[in-house]
Design brief:
The protein is α+β, with helices and mostly antiparallel strands. Helix content is about 15%, strand content about 50%. Strand 2 and strand 3 form a beta hairpin. It is globular and about 40 Å long.
Length: about 180
């Protein structure tokens, strides 16, 4: 009887740990994929992404940078896509809730002092399609804390006008990303 009681206690402990591990895996999955994207155009589908937000001063360019990054893998070399939304400015900016228009990235010839966007999307052979031109874009920040930023993005992107075939990409998404230290 004593052996049976120990066996049942051990079985209950294993079951409890298995449930806890499953719950931890689900919790980690929720934390890892903090962004949901609906994509149409040249690429179609529903995607989960890993997003983050960081602020820093770039000593080389002497510009302040506020930046969101979204990708579907922790390792950028394995990611299917990279979405970068960045603001470069000579003055520091505190992000607030509200709407921010999105334009062509400063890195692709856009203006400073506004949020610009660049999107890269890789196919199965790791050939990248770069979408540097913004037809329409909105960044909506709905909630800000010291640790996280919640909001939505609407992007209408195009490949360069100099490409033989100018492809379009539409991205609608919601995010709840951590504020990262850089």
């Amino acid at each position: 009887m004593k052996l049976y009681t120990h066996f049942m206690a051990l079985l209950a402990l294993i079951s409890f740990n298995a449930c806890s591990e499953d719950e931890n895996e689900n919790e980690m999955e929720e934390i890892a994929s903090n962004t949901e994207l609906s994509v149409s155009g040249e690429v179609e589908g529903e995607y989960k992404a890993l997003g983050s937000y960081f602020e820093h001063f770039d000593a080389d360019s002497e510009l302040y940078v506020n930046s969101f990054e979204f990708m579907d893998q922790y390792n950028p070399a394995e990611s299917t896509f990279l979405i970068g939304i960045s603001r470069f400015s000579q003055e520091d900016m505190e992000l607030t809730t509200g709407l921010y228009p999105l334009s062509t990235s400063y890195l692709a010839g856009g203006d400073t002092n506004s949020f610009g966007v660049g999107v890269s999307w890789w196919d199965e052979e790791r050939k990248a399609t770069i979408y540097p031109e913004v037809s329409n874009g909105i960044l909506r920040i709905t909630q800000i804390s010291s640790e996280r930023i919640r909001g939505e993005i609407i992007l209408r992107m195009k490949t360069s006008e100099y490409d033989e075939h100018q492809a379009e990409l539409n991205i609608d998404g919601k995010f709840n990303v951590p504020r990262e230290e850089f």
